[in-house]
Amino acid sequence: IPLAGVIGHPIAHSKSPRLHKHWLRQYGLPGDYVPLDVAEKNLATVVRALPKAGFVGANVTIPHKVNVLQLADQISDRAILIGAANTLIFLPDGRIHADNTDGYGFLANLRQGAPDWQPQAGPAAILGAGGAARAVVSSLLDAQVPEILISNRTRPKAEALRSEFGARLRVVDWVHAGNMLEEAATVVNTTSLGMQGAAELRVPLDGLQSGAVVTDLVYAPVDTRFLQVARQMGCVTVDGLGMLLHQAVPAFERWFGTRPEVTEATRQAVL
Ligand code: ATR
């Protein structure tokens, strides 16, 4: 039977095994999906061994998403652009294909959660400039947002994104992050602030425009303070759990041959 898994370190908290096993059951497909706890020094050995052990592919998560590119024989354009991979496909001839479906998952989740969302309606504001922000920036540019305002505690990381992704990005100082919300039709938190066990996001949110579409990549808790406040201000909110589910769709389809649907039942399966 075709096998897939998720490679990370640590890996115990990954929701991917439950998600893929749920779809395998739902569609009555043969296959299995396992968590693979792999230390940095063993990454190459493990990845090269997996196809020989019956694996058709693997997801890749922290801390391996950037390093794994060095092991790939083929890299998709979007993985090159983002500079990281979250999905490996082991080709029948033994070559390793690396892809990144995070940006796809981000947009698919936004479109499903806010069907009236119009990326062209106005600038997008992004909080954070880490690994997750790269996928968000590239997918929002793809979706034709007119401008991206980006603010990060460590400003040079936001400036690095600007020099890489170009003039449609405008860097805003972290102390003024609240101001950029006044212009924004789309607002995204890509920082880890608001996550269980982390500090809360302290950016003042009173500039949020009612009608703006607001999403948070944090999904533990699913309903973050940031989303709660945005809802109170009349914004349309989309939680981050859906991004995790949607990023898995193209991978599952490639590995197991059926394109799965993301529904309320899918959400319940991983909660
Ligand atoms: P990910 O892959 O999830 O984006 P990351 O690359 O470690 O993870 O990025 C974490 C993001 O959360 C960064 O934007 C980080 O800001 P810095 O670049 O300044 O580190 C942001 N972040 C984490 N803790 C923060 C805090 N206490 N205050 C402000 N921003 C924070």
What report would you give on this structure?
The mean pLDDT is 97. This protein has 271 residues and is α/β, with parallel strands linked by helices. It is globular. The chain is built from ten helices and twelve strands. β8, α6 and β9 (169-171) form a beta-alpha-beta unit. The protein has helices spanning 16-26, 43-49, 77-82, 102-113, 131-142, 155-165, 177-180, 225-232, 241-256, 264-270, and strands at 3-8, 32-37, 55-60, 74-75, 87-90, 96-99, 124-127, 148-151, 169-171, 186-189, 213-216, 236-238. Strands 2-1-3-5-6-4 form a six-stranded mixed beta sheet. Strands 9-8-7-10-11-12 form a six-stranded parallel beta sheet, sandwiched between helices. The protein binds 2'-monophosphoadenosine-5'-diphosphate.
Work out the number of β strands: 12
Query: What is the name of the CATH superfamily of the largest domain?
Result: NAD(P)-binding Rossmann-like Domain
Bound molecules: 2'-monophosphoadenosine-5'-diphosphate
Largest sheet: 6 strands, mixed
- Strands of the widest sheet, in order across it, are 2-1-3-5-6-4
Mean pLDDT: 97
Low-confidence stretches: none
Shape: globular
Fraction in helix: 25-40%
The tally of structural domains comes to: 2
What is the H/E order?
A: EHEHEEHEEHEHEHEHEEHEHH
What structural category arises from helix and sheet content? alpha/beta
| CATH level-3 fold name of the largest domain | Rossmann fold
Multimer state: single chain
- CATH classification, class level of the largest domain: Alpha Beta
In percent terms, what proportion of residues is strand?
15-25%
State the end-to-end CA separation: 27 Å
Binding site for NADP(+): 77, 128-132, 152-157, 217, 240
Binding site for shikimate: 14-16, 61, 86, 102, 219, 247
Pfam family, one: SDH_C
EC number: 1.1.1.25
